[in-house]
Amino acid sequence: MITKILTLYFLLIFSSSALTLSDVDTKTFIDSNTFYDQGDYKNAITKYHELINHYPKSGELYYNLANAYYKNGELGKSIFFYIKARNILPRHGDVKYNLEYAKNQKIDKQEGNLNLLNLFNIPFNEDELLILVTVFALFFWIIMIISLYRKTFIIVSTRYLAIFLLILTSMMLIIHTFSLKELGVITAQETSVFSTIGAGSIKLFTLHEGSEVVVLDKKDNWVLITLGDNRKGWVPSDKLIN
Amino acid sequence: MKFYILICLLIVANLCLAQIQVHLEVDSDTISLNEVVGVNVKVIGARNSSTPTINTNENFNIQHEGSSSQISIINGDTTISTSHQYQLSPIKPGTFTLGPATVEVNGKEFTSNTISIKVGGTTNIPNKDRNYYVEAFLDKKEAYLGEQVIYTFKLFNKVQLYNSTLEIPKFDGFISESLGSEKSIIKIINGVRWKETEIKTLLIPTRTGDFEIPPASINAKLIVSQSFFGAETKPVRLISETVKIKIKELPLANKPANFLGLIGEFDIKTSIEKNNIKRGESTTLTLEISGIGDSRDFPEPAIKTNDFKIYNDKPTFNKTIQGDQIKSVKTFKKAIVPQKAGTIMLPAIEITFFNPISGKYESRSTQAISINVLPSENGEDELKMATFNNLTSEKRNINLLATDLMPIFYHPGVLEGNFTKKINISHLYVFNILTFVLYIFLYYQKNMRNKLKLDVKKIRRNKAFGIFNKQFKTLKHQVNFASHASTMLREYLGDKLQLDGKSITTFDLDKIFLHSQISKTTLIELKNIFAKLDNFQFGGITISDQEKDKLLVTLVKIVKKLEKEI
Lengths: 242, 566
Known about the structure:
The complex is a heterodimer. By secondary structure, chain A is an alpha+beta fold.
């Protein structure tokens, strides 16, 4: 009976299938890269966007798109997509470098507000954390099963290690999930931030292209943003990307 | 000696028995807004009391000045008292209640009386008739958004003031910048020597509208009289008037399209590191925007040219206060790389600012710069090199290539993503649940097994019917039918009742089932079958197949009954 259950279980584990890549998408990807190399950034941007609709979790695509936006002179959008790429590829050196490179071009000084956008610098993306949590949970239950039959020092110690790893990764996942904020980046060369909805209200401060903001609310064609240091106000929605 | 000890004991006894009283007193219960009055809290009957806390209901500022203790013996009565002195200054006009004061002695709280204090407006004595007064004013009644405004606070005194502490108001709606420490001068007016102390603050309005800057105040001490034992002082509080200002929006008329929010009076200068360079080499262009006003937020000036590739470095900013003005310098450095050989003109760069003095938008521009570009030595047309200078420290100790973005990803495999995209997380969840269920199952099974191991009697009882059934299937064809059937039945009873089954006889049955739950009918039937089997076994009677069948039916019937009843 036990043998049957275990066989069925391991069959299920190893039955997962990998994603397959279609020829059309491969061609679109090669075409968009060719447009990029030829300096036709607008067409490259269009193609990358098409691909992102099919592969919304490809950090490399966001990175390529951000590069194309940067080369096309759209600093705000490039910073926005570099950040999206960094969220998926948090440890990739090129993504980090290009994001910093683009940020150096922006006008507004925002070093103090970085904490707001990235509360805890967790070096894993959400999927990786989910996988880590589930793998460590599996590890934990397997160790628990082994410890039913063998209670050596190594097994008991490994059980504590499994508990520790499971708690650690679960905490990281919780922190990551609860610290997620909707990011916005100013795309207009210069935009005023108003105290209330409507261009007739009091101008609180001015932001320039590439400034990162946190989106708090949306109403009509206006977006309520904050810089995190008690500076909050409404911006026309066409002045930023989020 | 005994007498002194007795006296001390009497004093201590008196002190312990004394009743504790707390009194709150003020020097005057009618004061003006710019006056400071003394408050005294007297604690009678305790020496080691805590510092009293006085409830001001947030209508007064109160400051503890010190305390003193006193022991007096009058006609044998000993009184101990502690006085705590405070300075009280009102915040707003009106009639307010001060107190009670609360003091803690040996963990017990004692409260005082309360006092009603009437606070009038500021006293309107002409300044020339006073010994001291303060003034606060702005250098303008109206200003444009972002224009520099100077707030001045002045203290005039012809008598000496000590321990002055100044409270500058909060400048809501302005960015404030101190214009240095206070400056004092002596003036002789109508033969009287006046000391004038001045503190200036530079304000930059950040919002439009009518603003009121709240009063500033000074708390100080005035010497009333001096003697051999020291000076007697009186606290004084001086409050300035509220200052009003109107902040206007920048004029919309004639506002240039390239105006980027620069307010003040500025100039722009350019300089080029080398005028003669080879194609593909870089040279540094420096743009310096300097003048009166804050240029911190001024963006990178754009240069419209296709003849050069331009790489911007991080700008530097420096701000100084000269006189009563903020002067700033923002420096932009750009590495420029010519794209073709020949004499190329770097176009003029223009900046626009609003000058609040003239009330107009003004612009300044640089001269176009001519650069002589020689063909590159190796003839490579596409050579694009640029020096990456450490411009912030003006040192050129690093010459590295770092002028463009990192390249894009080319391999289509990136669409498939890394391992995270290949793993189906829902499968992982299922595996987790399965592992958990497997654990629970194995845990339960192990537990059951352990339990059964411990409970052998239970196993024997539970297995009795199974063993009987197994043997029953082959019973009919056994050579010694009666002997086998008898043994089976005895062993069944033995297993069921935890006895040695083989030794059970017909005569034992009454004893065994004396207190048992089986019915009398079942017992009689059991005895009968035992007797029958004994007869066949030991009586030498041959059993026919018909009898065998009857016995088998009876045997099964009786075992099933016993299974139910035991």
